[in-house]
Design brief:
The protein is mainly α. The chain has helices at about 1-25, 40-45, 50-69. The protein is elongated, with a radius of gyration of 12 Å.
């Protein structure tokens, strides 16, 4: 069970890294705690997954809207 959770955390963190790069996330686009680049999101999701992953999913729409312009 522990290895499954570890793989889940690693897999979703890698997805966040590639997704953030794909949609063009850059530091300085948002204000506050969510102002990170792709590697920052990867580290946060890897180390604090229970907080970082839901926050990334919540902010993903804002990043997409900002980068469509």
């Amino acid at each position: 069970m522990d290895s499954f959770i570890g793989l889940l955390i690693l897999g979703t963190s890698i997805w966040v890294l590639f997704d953030a790069k794909t949609i063009g996330v850059k530091k300085g686009q948002l204000e506050g705690v969510a102002d990170m680049g792709p590697w920052g999101w990867f580290i946060v999701c890897l180390l604090l997954w229970i907080i970082g992953f839901p926050v990334y999913l919540a902010k993903r729409g804002e990043y997409k809207r900002i980068n469509e312009k």
